[in-house]
Amino acid sequence: MPAEAFAIDPADNVATALGDIEPGAVSVLGVSPAAPMESIDSIRAGHKLALCDIGVGQRVIKYGVAIGLATRPIPRGGWVHLHNLASQYDEASSALDLDTGAPPAEDHYV
Q: Could you give the 3-state DSSP secondary structure of residue 92?
C-alpha cells in the first residue's frame, strides 16, 4: 500500500504527509494531482510533499494559502521544509533547526 498525503485545496502545490513517506508511490487524498505521485525523498509525517515542480521565488501553497516562497528549486515529489522554503509570515523560521524546529542556540535566553 502506498504512503499517503493530503491536499485540501485545488490551488495547493504541496500535500501534507499523513505518515512517514519513503521514496516511491504516494497516494494523494483530497484534491489529487492528475498523474500518479512518486516521492523522491524521505518525508516525515506532517511535513510537505511537492505536488509539482516549484521554482525559486514561487509561492508554496497549502490550504489554498501561500505559506512562503521557495528558496531553491523544489522538484515534484520533493520534501518541502525549512531548507527550501522561506515563510512569508516569520523571518526567523528560516533559521530554525531542520529536525526539531528549535531556534539556534544563540537565540535561547538564559
A: helix
